[in-house]
Amino acid sequence: MVKPKKHLGQHFLIDDSISFNIAKALKNTDNYSHVIEVGPGTGALTKHLLANENYTTIAAEIDRESVVYLKQHYPQLKVIEESFLGLDFDKITDGNLAVAGNFPYNISTQILFKVYEEKHRVPEVVGMFQKEVAERVAEKPGSKKYGILSVLLQAFYDIDYLFTVEPEAFEPPPKVRSGVIRMVRNNITDLGCDESKFKVVIKTAFNQRRKMLRSSLKPFLNDEQKAMDLFTKRPEQLGVPEFIEITNLLFG
To answer: Which CATH fold topology does 195-251 show?
Structure first.
């Protein structure tokens, strides 16, 4: 059977060494029983995931041609014909699972928010994103790339930017460079503040990222708080501990 046609903005990874290195980057395999590969396409990464007997690989793929191709070439692979964004993890396993993939760039941010919501089930993520997204997730405070996703994910994951992938590694080549990151769950189970309020603080602050916090968070502040040095900073200057402190100051 021929490979699926390239459509829907798909770019197939053709450099096998990159696929191998993505699969090899899954380090903490004692902490999960399954790996979900998101959008495997023609199985460039899949074959390397299947070679690891420490976990069971499951593919989430919605492109019908790719599903047929995967079932023919990797009969041992369980393929779920659903979007990763709507997956019920409980139907896959009652244990932990990792997430891996050459992620579709048009939903990559949504994939990360899904991981965030399932963080207590997902000990590790290794994947390829558009380079700017990968950098933003891994960025530390003090950079313009540092933002909402950076803070939310770094609150619960240790994140490393692993390597950059050039367009020539794909067929057809995309117009952007790609980046591979690894996210490993830290030991935090409770931030020490109201997590829903924590998210409100972060989103409110970064929605006006050029302003000092005493301006962007003004609706939540009393006069005493407005005078505090902490609120004279801009959101990109603060790490997770400072946002936790602010959440507790504002919402107790």
So the answer is: Helicase, Ruva Protein; domain 3 (1.10.8)
